[in-house]
Design a protein that fits this description.
The structure is a single chain. The protein is of the alpha/beta class. The chain has one domain (about 1-205): Vaccinia Virus protein VP39 (Rossmann fold), CATH 3.40.50. It contains six helices and eight strands; from the N terminus they run H-E-H-E-H-E-E-H-H-E-H-E-E-E. The chain has helices spanning about 1-20, 35-40, 55-65, 95, 100-105, 125-135, and strands spanning about 30, 45-50, 70, 85-90, 110-120, 160-170, 170-175, 185-190. An eight-stranded mixed sheet has the order 3-2-1-4-5-8-6-7. Helix 2 (about 35-40) links the parallel strand 1 and strand 2 (about 45-50). The longest helix is centred in the N-terminal third of the chain and has 20 residues, at about 1-20. The radius of gyration is 20 Å and the shape is globular. The model has no long low-confidence stretch (mean pLDDT about 90). It binds S-adenosylmethionine (SAM).
Length: about 210
């Protein structure tokens, strides 16, 4: 049931939305790709995939949904800083918590883009998860996931270019521009150049001719 649910959301909402903002040139990482359900809707040629579950990667390769891939934990990626032009990460960050977001930020190139869909922390999200568990739509472990709020990400050099929430009930989903209640939120983040920090030098330390 859980897999059917996220496949419906991928097909109806995330794939069309991601396609509308994806720059297909450049190197793209699908972080937490699973067996490649979302990737299979996107038809990207320069896609690299990671997932912590080896059997998911094997399945994805067998189905032809993913190509180059490596088994890895999203919170400890085996890539150099600033490797990818675009990151796609759907339905994963609520498992890793904030450390996953920090790691994705690290491997994104300056001026690169992160397309993220995750359950964002709020009272509404918690109540929705509890309801989904009681209806048998979510497995019970979802009650324990380490939710965070994008505003926890106080970082110089990040711009939120767009955000929407996924609304609806199985089997029908769409997006809303009202992000106030949160739930499953989709963000388009741009890693903008960091401004150098200028620390004023005490005047007594400056050479006399400068003063
Ligand atoms: C709901 S599936 C989403 C798959 C894919 N992103 C999609 O939307 O089609 C969640 C995936 O996240 C992976 N995952 C969970 N925790 C992870 C972690 N710490 N590092 C990497 N992948 C993780 C799981 O193995 C699973 O394949």
């Amino acid at each position: 049931m859980f897999e059917t649910l996220y496949r419906q959301v991928n097909k109806q909402v995330l794939a069309p939305y991601f396609k509308s903002c994806l720059d297909v040139d450049g190197v793209i990482l699908d972080a937490g790709c699973g067996w490649g359900d979302l990737a299979s809707h996107l038809n990207l040629s320069h896609l690299f995939c990671i997932d912590v579950a080896f059997e998911q990667l094997v399945k994805g390769r067998r189905l032809g949904a993913i190509g180059s891939c490596v088994q890895s934990d999203l919170s400890h990626l085996p890539f150099e800083t600033e490797t990818f032009d675009t990151i796609i990460c759907a339905n994963v960050l609520h498992y890793t918590g904030f450390s996953g977001l920090q790691e994705l930020y690290r491997v994104t190139k300056t001026n690169g883009c992160m397309l993220l869909a995750f359950l964002e922390r709020s009272e509404y999200t918690r109540r929705s998860i509890d309801l989904a568990i009681s209806l048998g739509l979510f497995p019970p472990f979802m009650r324990e996931v380490p939710l965070f709020d994008i505003s926890d990400f106080h970082r110089v050099g990040i711009t939120i270019e767009d955000s929407v929430t996924v609304i609806g009930f199985p089997p029908w989903f769409t997006v809303s521009r009202d992000v106030s209640r949160r739930g499953l939120v989709v963000y388009v983040l741009r890693k903008t150049p960091q401004k150098p920090r200028i620390t004023p030098c005490p005047t007594e330390l400056l050479p006399a001719e400068v003063i």
